[in-house]
Design a protein that fits this description.
- The protein has three domains: 4-84, Winged helix-like DNA-binding domain superfamily/Winged helix DNA-binding domain (Arc Repressor Mutant, subunit A); 93-160 and 266-292, Periplasmic binding protein-like II (D-Maltodextrin-Binding Protein, domain 2, 3-Layer(aba) Sandwich); 162-265, 3-Layer(aba) Sandwich (D-Maltodextrin-Binding Protein, domain 2), CATH 3.40.190.
- It has helices at residues 4-17, 20-27, 31-45, 61-84, 106-118, 170-176, 194-197, 224-232, 242-250, 280-292; strands at residues 50-52, 57-59, 93-98, 122-127, 142-145, 154-168, 189-193, 201-204, 211-214, 216-221, 238-241, 255-256, 264-273.
- It starts with a helix and ends in a 10-residue tail after the last helix.
- Strands 3, 4, 5, 6, 11, 12 and 13 form a seven-stranded mixed beta sheet that branches. The protein has a two-stranded antiparallel sheet with strand order 1-2. A two-stranded parallel sheet has the order 7-10.
- The longest helix has 24 residues, at 61-84.
- It is built from ten helices and 13 strands.
- It is elongated and about 80 Å long.
Length: 302
Amino acid sequence: MMDTLTSLNVFAAVADLRSFAAAAERFGLSPAMTSKHVQHLEKRAGARLLNRTSRSVSLTEAGALYLERVRSLLDGLEEVEARIGSATIAPHGVLKVSLPVWMANVRFARMIAAFHARYPNVIVDLDLEGRIVNLVEEGFDLALRGTSTLDEGLIARKLGDAPFHLVAAPALLDRLGRPERLEDLDGFPLLAYSPVIGDGRIRIGEGAGAHEVRFSPVLKSGNETMLLLAAKEGMGLAFMPKPMIEDELSEGVLERVLPEMISFAAPIFAVYPNRSYLPAKVRAFLDFLVESGELGQNPKEN
């Protein structure tokens, strides 16, 4: 008779690793026995949970829903057992996180290194492709996003506000002139972050002093690294997150444009599946992000 609890752990591992062989190795089982555990659950659920081909393994729609419930069950069981035993759950395992491209910067890397030093048993798996991932189907523990718009079954926790600056290469400003008013920006070449200001229009300021700047887009991209490289080449102005351009500003490679008039921040949310219990590794990472203050800067800060 199959041990259903073991089957649940095996199924979660196959879904995470997208491989029967890798899951088998993790649990010290044969691939055939690993497959039997999954088949046992599929028989109980009355539905196919995984799509299997010779090269890949993926969740079915029913499998994604089943996995979400399984994770909640296993995480809750671990926490209850720890409480009964008066023990503290030490964060461990693989923590899979989806991040915006611009978080691939020195400051965030230092923070990840500090997190690892505190929790050496957590392996951090970072995805920086800049896409909106399906947390449940793709096995992510959480994502950091600049929006609170959520799919069903997800919750969001605001971590802070990321300051953005309007910057340009000094050579470009020497050639075109340094704007003194918002109106002077009209027609300036823009390296546009396509998901937000692809048309080059952005309203800056508040009340009577507000002005809709109409830039002239010369490059559109959803990749902040590409926009940064183009800005350094003097191709146009760009709105960039502060943590990504601190070295360029301090070294004079880039300079801020109208810093007293243009200062705004984008809210950053941690998004994760709605579960009764958060795994210790996820809770530790969220608390560490808040504690570090890397994502909670004052938008008025220069």
